[in-house]
Write a structure and sequence with these properties.
about 20% strand, D-Maltodextrin-Binding Protein, domain 2, two-stranded parallel ribbon, alpha/beta, 9 strands, seven-stranded mixed beta sheet
């Protein structure tokens, strides 16, 4: 009887220890997280990530320690996805290009010329966020979705209508496959280019237009080559902060909740700062010779027509049907004042 009692006690202790080990709750355990970002350390984005790393450590009483690897030191976003999957690094900040590798549905939020304002984006994101979470690959966890401003067209010659853009060679990031397909479907000519060869390709006129956020164009000084900007937001810049599930599952539920709270609070603060940063970037580039071209209402309507003419062939193969339908319903309701 005594032997049986001892055996049962040992079995219970073993099972409890196994549960604690799997959940990462062993007392005194430190979880080290290497966090990758392609963004510059010396930028609003970089400074926010450094502050977030400190906040994660403070919120978990030092149980989580974060090292942020800035400036693309972990490679491209695709490289970082692979590194997180293999646990070489544990977390990262990604644009829609990177996130689309593990959640293709996110690209629907960047359908060209669909969403026009931050308010529309917020309304849609609030409703589709649970769907996006459900579409994320199982070995990843999205800690928070983020916004990064808006994409605009920058060009060597003034662009006011779709016909103007069809005469240009639009630079495209090969990683943005779905977005590139959308532009090609609309009849625009694309030429592959990335940040490593952007300068030479601009100098040789291999490309003469790009779509990019002003907050990225300004520090890269690309407006010296592309000194015209079309004053119509093409699409919102979406992103996400992700962690691999191996690391996430090592955290206690209390640590997970603390990290989510900190991250979402900082995302809200950062989102509120984006319009100011965007305006400051455009103003600085105007002082440096950028011309901001404002189309007439009739010219602006032509861009919406481009989307209407192409969208049927894109919903399903490129853009997620469920999310697109929800977004369209919200936009119709909002724009009609209902």
């Amino acid at each position: 009887m005594k032997k049986r009692a001892v055996f049962l006690i040992l079995l219970i202790l073993f099972l409890i220890g196994s549960v604690y080990a799997q959940r990462g709750t062993a007392r005194g355990e430190t979880i080290n997280i290497r966090f990758g970002s392609v963004l510059p350390r010396n930028s609003d984005f970089g400074r926010t990530l450094d502050r977030m790393a400190s906040e994660w450590e403070r919120a978990t009483n030092g149980a989580v320690r974060v090292t942020v690897s800035h400036d693309g030191r972990e490679g491209t976003e695709q490289n970082m996805i692979s590194a997180i999957s293999s646990n070489s690094i544990q977390a990262g900040l990604f644009s829609a290009a990177g996130i689309s590798e593990i959640c293709p549905a996110i690209i629907t939020m960047s359908t060209p010329f669909m969403i026009r304002t931050d308010n529309e984006l917020d309304l849609i994101l609030r409703e589709v966020e649970p769907i996006l979470h459900s579409r994320v690959r199982n070995d990843f966890v999205v800690v928070a979705w983020a916004k990064g401003g808006w994409l605009y067209l920058f060009s060597k010659e003034p662009i006011l209508t779709p016909a103007d853009l069809r005469r240009q060679r639009l630079a495209s990031n090969p990683e943005l496959r779905d977005m590139n397909l959308a532009f090609r479907t609309m009849g625009f000519t694309l030429a592959d280019a990335d940040m490593s060869n952007m300068g030479p390709r601009l100098a040789s006129n291999a490309i003469n237009a790009i779509y990019m956020a002003p907050t990225a164009v300004a520090p890269l000084q690309l407006h010296r080559h592309l000194n015209h900007m079309l004053n119509i937001p093409i699409a919102p810049v979406m992103g996400a902060l992700v962690m691999n599930r191996v690391t996430w599952d090592r955290l206690t539920s209390e640590q997970q909740q603390a990290i989510v709270r900190v991250t979402q609070r900082m995302v809200v603060e950062f989102n509120e700062s984006i319009p100011r940063s965007e305006t400051a970037a455009i103003t600085a580039m105007e002082r440096g010779g950028l011309s901001v071209n404002r189309p007439s209402p009739a010219q602006e309507a032509l861009w919406r027509t481009e989307l209407d003419n192409s969208i049927n062939s894109l919903v399903g193969p490129v853009f997620d049907r469920e999310i697109y339908q929800i977004a369209n319903r919200i936009l119709e309701r909002t724009r009609s004042g209902r």
